[in-house]
Amino acid sequence: MSNSSIKLLPDHVANQIAAGEVVQRPASVVKELMENALDAGADNIKLIVKDGGKSLIQVIDNGKGMNPIDARMAFERHATSKIAKAEDLFHIQTKGFRGEALASIAAVAHVEMKTKTENEELGTYIKIEGSKIINQEPVATATGTSIAVKNLFFNIPARRKFLKSIQVEMRHINDEFFRLALAHPQIAFSLIHNGNLLYQLPASNHLQRIDRLFGQKIKQKMVPVQEETDYIKISGYIGKPEYAKRKRGEQYFFVNNRYIKSPYLHHALMSAYEGLIKEKTFPSYFVYFDIDPQHIDVNIHPTKTEIKFDDEQTVYSILKVAAKHSLGQFNITPSMDFDSRPDLEVPYAYTKKSPKIPEINVDPDFNPFKEDSFGQPAKTPTKHFEKKLEYWESLIHPTENFEIPDNNPTTQTENFVQLESHINQKYFQLKNKYIVTRQDDNLLLMHQNRLHTQILFIELYKQLQSGHIASQQLIFPVEINLPEHDIEAVKNFKSELEKMGFDLQFSTRKLLIQAVPFSLNARQTKDVIQDILNDINSDTPTETKELIRKTAYHIAEKSAVKTGQNLQEAEMENMLNQWFKTGRPVHTEQGKKIVYNIPLKTIDRYFD
Ligand code: ADP
Ligand code: MG
């Protein structure tokens, strides 16, 4: 035996390896500790976090607690009070059952626990560092358990280094907190981050809990779903189609009070919205399934956010039908959307100018509504009009036998106006998308939206570097409802945002914007804030400097002239001047082409 090369791993090494699976980041610790508190029958659970969980994660519960022996046992691997035999796996009602979490956490952090059962006078205090018991002694403490996890991955520098920013880790913690809070509305929860009370959730019902977490008058934006068969019971709330958002996020499925991810069920639900919502928008939903645990397998995923139903197809169709039914029953019709009419948006450079009245030679006799004796619109254009049209047509089509497109007086007027205004034009638009002009002997083709975005971006960025972006007060401040962790994120970025022209005020789950960068309007402000939050919350860490740059770009993007927008010649001229001033950029920040410069030589070649 002595020369065998196979060795049993020491426990602390085995625990560290297991920890790799169970503990990916602070949020995994939060999940395990909170689930244990729920399993212990607590009805009040407090989560205290410091620095996105990097320094401290503490969960305090009023559950049944542990006696001194169990307290010690709890940190052993495969120590669980929740299953005793393999068969129990098929009837699991608790969150945990693998008996791995505490052992894994204790292997990679400094852990202190105080716990007491109802029957004991004194409780137990245990201190463990990297699987080593440092101390165990009696302590005076309330019934229940308090576990503090400090300095996660202190002994695995490679993993500690890969933790993301406080903000990003906090977002993951927040996600776990939301999932558990939504799954258990009858339990009171609170969340404190760096001394700030972010959420205090009293025991309530599902709808109140959703409202408490998301605010935004979410109750009015939801309809209930309800369905019950022998196999499964479905309940919950799904968003009215008109409130579907650009952003995914408020989408939750729970099976037996456990949050799950399911692209398959997401698909079922989305198919109920077919034709009701715009492409690339997502409804919110909070759907709860109750099913006999025998019909599901929760053991297929180590962190248990995926489960398997033994009859997936049935669940799919029941959900789809139930959702369709509620959307129909509550008589939902998509509301008209005036928000995204690009042609109604005025580029900022022109908001200050009084609109130039286009000089059009109007035929004073022309009346498109004049009807002939048969009650039809008059078919014969006036003589004056006819003459002009012929003249311009002959300029454009110098060939004989040209045809007037049709006899409808309205189109003819349009034709006429266009021809009139194009004759001396240095700039014109192609399909309200491209600006066409010339520079010396070259033909310039420019993408109007990209061109304007990039110009604005460069200007904004320059202004930022020399101090502040000009700001404008809003007559009606913009109010944005946000979850607390997002409010916190905006607060942390406040001084930069102020430099960019925002004037912000904060209250509970609410952001009040009183002034915005000069180029933005109130309506675009919400989108910009959402884009900034997406950047801050993004899993790829972003340095503040980069964040500022991105924000400037979002502002430019939102304020720029859109594709599809009709431009006056003066506007195009102004843009071209700005393009020159900003150093004639050829690509946008994202590397997209802004301009094609087609030299005369190339054009000549077409005519070879
Ligand atoms: P599991 O939850 O899979 O059983 P854990 O490692 O998370 O494994 O916990 C081990 C055991 O410690 C649990 O089975 C439970 O008996 C006990 N325990 C853990 N946390 C608590 C708590 N907050 N209150 C009471 N008992 C707990
Ligand atoms: Mg557990």
Write the layout of secondary structure elements.
Elements: H1 11-22, H2 26-39, E1 44-50, E2 56-61, H3 68-73, H4 101-107, E3 110-116, E4 123-129, E5 132-139, E6 144-150, H5 157-161, H6 166-183, E7 188-193, E8 196-201, H7 206-214, E9 222-228, E10 232-239, E11 251-255, E12 258-260, H8 263-272, E13 285-291, E14 296-297, E15 308-309, H9 312-329, H10 348-351, H11 383-396, H12 409-422, E16 428-430, E17 434-439, E18 442-447, H13 448-465, E19 471-481, H14 484-492, H15 494-499, E20 503-507, E21 510-517, H16 522-537, H17 544-559, H18 569-581, E22 595-598, H19 600-606
Parallel strand pairs: 1-7, 11-13
Antiparallel strand pairs: 1-2, 2-6, 3-4, 3-6, 4-5, 7-8, 9-10, 10-13, 11-12, 14-15, 16-17, 17-18, 18-22, 19-21, 20-21
Helix pairs in contact: 1-4, 2-6, 6-7, 8-9, 11-12, 13-17, 16-17
Bound molecules: adenosine-5'-diphosphate (ADP) and magnesium ion (MG).
Residues 32, 36-37, 39-40, 61, 63-66, 74, 79-82, 96-103, 145 line the site of adenosine-5'-diphosphate.
Strand content: 15-25%
Radius of gyration: 33 Å
Shape: elongated
In the CATH hierarchy, what is the superfamily of the largest domain?
A: MutL, C-terminal domain, regulatory subdomain
Level-2 CATH architecture of the largest domain: 2-Layer Sandwich
CATH-defined topology of the largest domain: Ribosomal Protein S8, Chain: A, domain 1
What is the number of helical segments per DSSP (H or I, 4+ residues)? Answer: 19
Physical arrangement of strands within the biggest beta sheet? 5-4-3-6-2-1-7-8
Taken together, the total number of domains comes to: 4
Helical/strand content category: alpha+beta
The main β sheet shows up as: 8 strands, mixed
Please write the CATH class name of the largest domain.
Alpha Beta
Number of strands: 22
Report the span from N to C terminus: 90 Å
- The amount of helix comes to 25-40%
- pLDDT under 50 segments (min length 5)? 333-421
